[in-house]
TrEMBL record, chain B:
It is a multi-pass membrane protein. InterPro entries: ABC_transp_permease. This is ABC transporter permease. It holds the Pfam family BPD_transp_2. The keyword Iron-sulfur does not apply. It comes from Mesorhizobium huakuii. One of its GO terms (molecular function) is transmembrane transporter activity.
Length: 522, 311
């Protein structure tokens, strides 16, 4: 894998962790972790949510200091005291949570960090970006405001930023979670080119296939401890399946197969049943940096899951919001059980059974500082029996919330815990419980498993399948093709705000969807 | 009523408007920088008072207005240092500390003034005006806008300097990032605490200068509580200006006209109760808030102390 050019520099650690321990109130985030990061290697850090990956990254990038143990840079013990220090040492990080200033343009974000007395060197940057993006195969709108980019586009900007800074160690924290299959492959190829030039990469993921496909060395973290490592020699000796089963053994110590591969149960959708949701020629006007929607038409029958595939930022969010009533449509009709609802308000659509699970769980999905219990009823504030005469009925709320916590297996210390303190997976469960509650008929899921760990991903998918099995109509928007193929009855492909084709989920669906996504006819 | 529309009256009204606007402008520009960087500076009223007092004392004993401006700015910076230490470095609540600083400085400057001058209110000689040739010969406008102390022109030039700073310089980017997403600035390798400290100290200097101008040029003397809410008007201006210095200028001039009108109408002896006339500037604030308030946009991290790695 690594060429002979890199083997001359390989063998010595750029950065090494020795017995690093980090504690936060109540938890040990990292417990005596050893790690060696070498030039010419993609070092994959695998672990579920809460395994301590983010804390490890925080210490490497100078945001946090270890309580015990030491970090060696080029063989010398070096406390990384600040992010600036980390950058000076050549450690560039693409964080899982966006580290871009939303009110500035992409160019301005890339320029951030230059000497303050200088004028920002815009022309120089543009040339450098053009050079990098051509090898990356991405296009970046330098003059768009970051707040107007999709999450996936923002992530591309972050990767670009680390490249612009000439890092010699690049840390990618869950960088593929927002990318398309093609984008992920491209990132993999890019990582390969970079390590061949002698760069070291730490690649954090919880997708086993990515780990096996892109890694040279894999370290597995579990509850803050490193539970195993596959060194490059061994890595090369194994094929992909063998690596995956070895990782699964390390992570779960039980199943051998790819746990994400779930056989899609054959559901029988009654073709003669009247569609629950009928969308005809839906259109939304484009904004400065978001595509509009044009002539979107589809039907979903009871018990059916319709997938929306496509590269992120092609109008998925606009589609979801237009259906939910959060974005004004400029034309077309939306019928729920045959009744036109396109003129109704968000609340009225919800009352009639149209539910929308946003991908922005903490932003528009929940109120982070409110307790778990209230978050279950955010969309029913003021409604009986939870509110009477404008007064909160604590008893009713807590009773129902406790039921939902049990039913949806929300792991929360108590009903009073502010929802933002829960993990992503549990916040998602709260949203699921709220949106699937009584009266749901059509449910729109926007990237329902984005950023969740394996266990929660599987649980969410099962919940969506159950939803359809109950006879509801499901619209599943996802950039994860595997997810769509494992769940949907039909998959429509969205590109530039229009549906370019719909594919029955049969054996050759993967290639047909792929062709649609890259602009070829199915 | 004829007096109201005479050339002399109009030009005096506008002259007064400019004089009244300059402290608001300086305070507004200062507050704007602080807010851009994410620090809500309610202590700005206190900084202005410190500037007014020390500016007056400096000018009174040295006989030099310029030295007075310098000591005034230094006074504002001294108060800002406390603010930077407590709110930026230690991360205490910006609103509480801001109010405390304002109240503290109101008392302190009144007390010091009382000790020094007892109940006498010595005056400074009238400030020398820098008359701009040709332009000052234009009727009405000339005497109103082009016969001011040099610092007035400098303050207006500062508006454009600030605009350039925010739009075209690295420091401007850093300031905005510190207010909108400090964590992003931090991982870009720029010290958020330092960036915010620079902003707060600059605010102090500008507010102090504004206070000194108010006392030394506007009034020619120091009296306790002389700022009379000018700092708070500066906060309103900064919030309504949405980060654009030139809007601070327009806003300051508008308020300046109102403040000047209160004086002018009293002088002109119009038969309206003084109380109503004195309400005018604050009525203008309310009208502006109603008209433009919803367009105010504030930085996302405004008022939130930055702590690295906090979750």
């Amino acid at each position: 894998m690594s060429g002979s050019s890199s083997s001359s520099v390989a063998g010595r650690d750029i950065v090494a962790l020795e017995g690093v321990t980090k504690r936060f109130p109540g938890i040990v985030a990292n417990d005596s972790v050893d790690l060696s990061i070498r030039p010419g290697e993609v070092h994959v850090l695998l672990g579920e949510n809460g395994a301590g990956k983010s804390t490890l990254i925080g210490m490497l990038s100078g945001l946090q200091q270890p309580d015990e143990g030491r970090i060696l840079v080029d063989g010398k013990p070096t406390p990384i005291t600040s992010p600036r220090h980390a950058l000076a040492l050549g450690i560039g990080t693409v964080f899982q949570h966006m580290m871009l200033v939303p009110t500035l343009t992409v160019a301005e974000n890339l320029l951030l960090g230059g000497p303050w007395w200088q004028r920002p060197r815009t022309e120089e940057l543009a040339a450098r970006v053009a050079e990098i993006t051509s090898t990356l195969g991405i296009t970046v709108k330098l003059h768009a405001k970051v707040s107007e980019l999709s999450l996936g586009e923002q992530q591309q900007v972050e990767i670009l930023r680390a490249m612009v800074r000439n890092s010699r160690l690049l840390i990618l924290d869950e960088s593929t979670s927002m990318l398309t299959p093609k984008g992920i492959d491209e990132l993999g190829a890019l990582m390969r080119r970079l390590v061949e030039q002698g760069l070291a990469i730490v690649f954090i993921t919880h997708k086993l296939k990515e780990a096996a496909a892109f890694g040279d060395r894999i370290s597995v973290l579990k509850l803050g401890r490193k539970v195993g490592e596959i060194p490059p020699e061994r890595f090369r000796a194994l094929d992909e399946q063998a690596i995956i089963s070895e990782i699964v053994e390390l992570m779960f110590g039980k199943q051998k197969d790819d746990p994400e591969a779930v056989e899609r149960p054959v559901r029988t959708v009654r073709a003669e049943a009247a569609p629950l949701l009928q969308v005809t020629d839906l259109a939304v006007a484009p904004t400065d940096n978001a595509p509009g929607l044009s002539s979107i038409s589809f039907d979903i029958r009871p018990g059916e899951i319709l997938g929306i595939a496509g590269i992120d930022g092609n109008g998925q969010k606009q589609l979801a919001e237009a259906l939910a009533g959060q974005r004004a449509a400029t034309g077309g009709s939306v019928r729920l059980e045959g009744v036109a609802i396109e003129a109704l308000s968000v609340g009225e659509r919800r009352r009639r059974g149209l539910r929308y699970l946003t991908d922005d769980r903490l932003g528009e999905g929940t109120v982070g500082t409110f307790p778990v219990s209230i978050n279950f009823f955010l969309k029913q504030v003021g409604a009986a029996p939870f509110w009477r005469g404008g007064v909160e009925q604590r008893g009713e709320i807590d009773k129902r919330a406790a039921e939902l916590v049990r039913e949806y297996d929300v792991r929360t210390p108590s009903l009073k815990t502010p929802v933002a303190r829960l993990s992503g997976g549990n916040i998602q469960k709260v949203l699921l419980a709220r949106e699937l509650a009584e009266g749901a008929k059509v449910v729109i899921f926007n990237k329902p498993t984005y950023g969740l760990d394996l266990a929660n991903t599987l649980a969410s998918r099962q919940r969506i399948r159950d939803t359809a099995a109950r006879g509801l109509a499901v619209l599943l928007i996802s950039t994860d093709l595997e997810e769509l193929l494992s769940m949907c009855d039909r998959v429509a492909v969205i590109a530039n705000g229009a549906l370019v084709g719909t594919v029955e989920n049969t054996d050759d669906a993967r290639t047909r969807i792929g062709r649609l996504m890259i602009g070829l006819a199915a | 009523m004829t007096g109201l529309f005479s050339e002399v009256f109009l030009s005096a009204l506008l002259f007064g408007a400019v004089t009244a606007a300059i402290p608001l402008l300086l305070a507004g520009l200062g507050e704007q920088m602080s807010e851009k960087a994410g620090v809500l500076n309610i202590g700005i009223e206190g900084m202005m008072l410190a500037g007014a007092y020390l500016g007056f004392v400096g000018a009174f004993y040295s006989g030099s207005l310029w030295l007075g401006f310098l000591t005034g700015a230094a006074g504002g910076v001294a108060v800002a240092l406390i603010m930077a230490l407590l709110c930026v470095r230690i991360g205490l609540n910006q609103i509480v500390i801001g109010i405390a600083l304002t109240l503290g400085l109101e008392g302190l400057t009144a007390l010091l003034h009382h000790f020094q001058f007892s109940r006498s209110y010595p005056r400074l000689p009238a400030a020398d005006a820098t008359v701009i040739p040709l332009l000052s010969d234009i009727p009405v406008i000339g005497p109103a806008f082009f016969k001011h102390h040099l610092i007035v022109y400098l303050a207006v030039a500062l508006v454009f300097a600030m605009g350039y700073l925010y739009r075209r310089t690295q420091l401007g980017l850093n300031l905005q990032a510190a207010g909108d997403k400090p964590a992003a600035l931090d991982v870009a390798g720029i010290d958020v605490i330092r960036t915010r400290t620079i902003a707060v100290l600059t605010t102090g200097a500008l507010a102090g200068l504004g206070g000194a101008y108010l006392a030394n040029v506007g009034a020619g003397l120091f009296i306790p509580f002389i700022t009379n809410g000018a700092g708070f008007l500066g906060i309103v201006l900064a919030m309504l200006a949405r980060g654009r210095p030139v809007w601070v200028l327009f806003g300051a001039l508008l308020f300046g006209v109102c403040l000047s009108l209160t004086t002018a109408m009293q002088v002109a002896g119009i038969n309206i109760p003084t109380d109503i006339i004195q309400m005018l500037p604050f009525l203008a604030v309310m009208i502006m808030l109603v008209l433009f308030g919803r367009r105010a946009s504030l930085p996302a991290a405004l008022g939130i102390p930055y702590e690295r790695g906090a979750r």
